[in-house]
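Researcher: We're teaching a course module on how sequence relates to structure. For the next exercise, students receive a sequence and then see the predicted structure as tokens, so they can try to spot secondary structure elements on their own. Here is the exercise chain.
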Amino acid sequence: MTVDIKAKVTEWLNWDKNDKTRAEIEKLVADGKDDELKARMEGRLLFGTAGIRAPMQAGFARLNDLTIIQTTHGFAQYLKQQFPNGNNGVAIGFDGRHNSRRFASLAGNVFIKNGIKVYLFSEVAPTPVVSWAVIHLKCSAGLMITASHNPKEDNGYKAYWSNGAQIIGPHDVEIVRIKEAEPEPRAEYWDLSEFDKSPLLYSADVTIDPYFVAEKSNNFYRALNAKTPLKFTYSAFHGIGYQYATRMLREFGFSDANVISVKEQQEPNPDFPTVPFPNPEEGRKVLTLSLETADKNGSTVILANDPDADRLQMAEKQPNGEWYIFTGNEMGTLMTWWVWMNWRERNPDADLSNIYMLNSAVSSQVVKTIAEKEGFQNDITLTGFKWMGNVADDLKAQGKKVILAWEESIGFMPGHTLDKDGVSSAAIFAEMATWLHENKKSLHDQLFSLYEKYGFHLVRSTYWIVPDPSVTKELFATLRQDLKYPTKIGKEDVAHIRDLTIGYDNSQPGNKPRLPISTSSEMVTFTLANGSLITLRASGTEPKIKYYIELRTAPGKKQSDLGEVLEELNQLEQGVVDTLLRPKQFGLIPRK
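Model: And here is the predicted structure for the students to work with:
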């Protein structure tokens, strides 16, 4: 054991008051597991795309009682710095994972010991409802204990600022800086004996009813919903969405007879026993029970939340009896059309220069195409709702209105939260299906109608495994060497290049990108002369290089042209692999 690791172990054993995690470290020491100790003790817990996520184990690089206390101490001190004349407290929620309720209580206790009011939900609450609570209660900050769709061994720490959006710089960096500068926890932080009786502890449950009232502004066809013969199969994926999603469907006018729950996945279960991954985005292999339940009950639409109910997957039964599972980009295309159609009908004379939809840089640019044709505005953000939520708030401050934001990983922000909301999205998609059914169309039919009107926007994304982190740096370095990027990808000419790692975009004045630069992450986007897009991005958490290809065609092509369009996409994908990834040269391993 190195001197540095030995010192960290000593600090851990001195500071950790949880017998279980103390025993974990003591056993690793006794067994001489130096590599495991190093992995757990070294490394920093940093805020990523969706907060901090890590396995629940002992160690400074893991999530546990001690690191929750340390991080919250940094958060509390930073709030006191930013609001020296007093703040409006913190709203705290938690999901159904192991330790989530305890972590929420420990965090709340740290805030209270620093004189900060805490609004705590009494039971599990969806992530978007915590964002809403910050906004509704006018809190200075918010905290959600969740690892969303991560494996059961993980948990997470998702922080919000006073606008209800996730924290970005400088807030995230400063919280971590203070945490690391003042790592030793106060003894009082561990004592929860008086927590429930504290005069600074309030219930956040008062925000639940107003949340449903606010989200009903997206309910346009209540009478139609009340009489629809459609049946929707809903899965909470062993998470916390069931009570909220089924209530939202009722609020939109659907009856209990319209909604069939996947009973085996209805209640929170932190072990996620019936799915190989607790992530509905994985598609058919994790939707087995949903498909079986739907078939048994004559249901034609499946709506599945992820475990913290901030994302939504959808599938629809086709006339041939097969199930079509929509991608996030396809769902985003439908949501863009639906939100725009209904908003415009109710605001026919509005100034469209102030009306925005947002989507992320790796999502389909179909929003841009629709915006150009219909007249509203589209802004692109970095990946993740922490960026979309804050951009939406910035636009609001300028007198603009954001009516929708979404990204390809089945996340949609159609309402009053400043984070993605799988609860309101479930009801909106159900109403969309109902309206289409009344008009003799399916969701799948409508998707291809939109492609015919605006052009196909077909997206393909996957990843290749990198043998070593140094390979990632070398691969991207060769792409941008002396700013001599590839001028052709396959047979297609490259029109523009945006490299957010070095801050280069030759489609913008002075070659300066509008999107924020991120020198710590590799990401290059190629716009082709035919309007198609390719983004190459290094994963921030895994040894992977991901690519996102979007093939765009001219309007007018029908569903019968799909085979021809897919062949064009296949050729473009091969060009991306050969020109950009060069797997033989760099030893990349394809996704299995």
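Model: If you want an answer key for the exercise: The chain has a mean pLDDT of 96. Residues 94 and 145 are 5 Å apart (CA to CA).
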